[in-house]
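Here is the promised in-class demo. Please do not try to memorize the tokens; focus on the logic of going from shape to residues.
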């Protein structure tokens, strides 16, 4: 059997963590089995549809870097992959259920259903949903009425029976049919299908072998299984994925922090980090190992690695993953990724200004200074300002090392002034050797000697590594900055 699974989002909102987890697990499962991963747009709810959400979906997955084998944008043997382009088909299939007695026309108006609901509410009735009034209209009479009246098509749930199916993760699930939504609508009065019908028909026609979806859909599955059987089709294998919760144990939502892929992207996350972390939401692969590339995950993923327990989304952990991926990015690649943030932050002279060629070279070279020290791409420009513009000279107090004084600070600066030209031509070890020797000769603590130098050159007591900064800025520039500092301290 060919393994075929799908991500079937309804474009009624931005792509978020939950959707990405479903898409990723489907992708990984299909790839691990040499199967096919399909994208299908379930846009039956036209009132909540917005094309910008479709654009967001494509942009998000483009950024994430994994793709489907069949889908609306690339087609495939079972297209179209957009439900609104398949509406006629659903009606045809619903009618086959009427013909075999598994569905019926319903002529109840929405007003009648409203009255029914209100009456039940007033009587504190435990009953809800449709009262099956039209279920027993003789089929011929119903067919004749359907030619002239507005109708919906409802599924005839077999009463007094139970529906049993197996969930790969949760095991056998049994559901009393009387507890399934009473005869749900398959085709609405405007001729549009409901989610349930379109979902089942498409999974069948698209030869979907496995449905991996969030556990919130579990309660719809008995209904879907009843529908498959009504059509005489074998249902796919179901696997309902553990819920994704916030740290307070409630379903992950905006209250907990960013949830849309867009926000993570804007906040300076790398797709590798997001994918790696999300692949661990509800699954574990190898004892003691947490860093996995997409390629590794494609090989290692299997359904028996899934956990039943809800997954907790931990923003701090995700940040840790991001820092790990930033750390190992080659300088050139990291610079390309961080550049848009730097342009937006005005690092190259003004907000929105692209770097001049020499600024670009400097920016790339600076990546090695900061990649061990940042969590987000968006932090990078803020750390590198002193390389692209002369920082203002800080207050005198900033230059004075702990337990030292102004006279000493001035002395350290002057010693440093004599060293920077040589240091600029040395690697870290060489530069360190040089200053260490001199510090010993001058009987100064190394830290004390370097502290005012750092402030003079970078404009701050806390900065990226000093030796690397001196190399990038060059001896002349550093000497000039030290001169400014000396001037200020002398005044
Ligand atoms: N359209 C549904 C959703 O938005 C699909 C559910 C399923 O995977 O069957 O999640």
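The designed amino acids, position by position:
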């Amino acid at each position: 059997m060919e393994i075929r699974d799908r991500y079937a989002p309804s474009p009624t909102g931005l792509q978020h963590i939950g959707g990405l987890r479903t898409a990723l697990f489907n992708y990984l499962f299909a790839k691990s089995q040499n199967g096919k991963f399909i994208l299908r747009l379930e846009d039956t709810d036209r009132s909540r549809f917005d094309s910008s959400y479709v654009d967001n979906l494509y942009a998000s997955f483009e950024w994430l870097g994994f793709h489907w084998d069949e889908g609306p944008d690339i087609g495939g043997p079972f297209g179209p992959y957009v439900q609104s382009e398949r509406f006629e088909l659903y009606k045809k299939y619903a009618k086959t259920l009427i013909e075999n007695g598994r569905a019926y026309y319903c002529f109840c108006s929405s007003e009648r259903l409203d009255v029914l609901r209100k009456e039940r509410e007033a009587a504190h009735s435990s009953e809800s949903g449709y009262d099956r009034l039209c279920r027993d209209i003789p089929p011929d009479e119903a067919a004749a009425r359907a030619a002239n009246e507005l109708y919906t098509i409802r599924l005839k749930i077999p009463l007094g029976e139970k529906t049993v199916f197996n969930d790969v993760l949760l095991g056998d699930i049994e559901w009393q049919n009387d507890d399934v939504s009473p005869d749900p609508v398959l085709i609405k009065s405007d001729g549009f299908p409901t989610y349930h019908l379109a979902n089942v028909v498409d999974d069948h026609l698209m030869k979907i072998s496995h449905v991996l979806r969030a556990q919130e859909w579990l309660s719809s599955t008995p209904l879907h299984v009843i529908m498959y059987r009504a059509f005489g089709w074998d249902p796919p294998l179901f696997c309902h994925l553990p819920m994704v919760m916030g740290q307070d144990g409630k379903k992950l939502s905006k209250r907990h922090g960013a949830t849309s892929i867009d926000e993570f992207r804007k906040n300076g996350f790398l797709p590798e980090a997001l994918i790696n972390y999300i692949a661990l939401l509800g699954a574990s692969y190898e004892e003691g190992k947490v860093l996995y590339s997409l390629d590794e995950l494609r090989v290692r993923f299997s359904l028996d690695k899934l956990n039943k327990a809800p997954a907790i989304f931990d923003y701090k952990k995700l940040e840790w993953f991001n820092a790990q991926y930033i750390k190992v990015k080659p300088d050139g690649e990291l610079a390309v990724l961080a550049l848009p943030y730097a342009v937006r932050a005005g690092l190259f002279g003004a907000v929105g200004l692209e770097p001049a060629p020499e600024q670009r070279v400097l920016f790339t070279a600076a990546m090695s200074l900061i990649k061990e020290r940042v969590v987000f791409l968006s932090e990078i420009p803020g750390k590198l300002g002193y390389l692209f513009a002369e920082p203002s000279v800080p207050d005198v107090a900033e230059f004075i090392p702990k337990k030292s004084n102004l006279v000493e600070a001035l002395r350290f600066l002057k010693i440093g002034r004599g060293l920077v030209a040589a240091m600029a031509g040395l690697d870290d070890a060489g530069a360190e050797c040089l200053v260490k020797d001199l510090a010993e000769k001058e009987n100064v603590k190394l830290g004390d000697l370097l502290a005012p130098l750092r402030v003079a050159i970078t404009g701050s007591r806390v900065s990226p590594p000093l030796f690397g900064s001196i190399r990038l800025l060059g001896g002349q520039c550093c000497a000039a900055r030290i001169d400014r500092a000396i001037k200020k301290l002398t005044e």
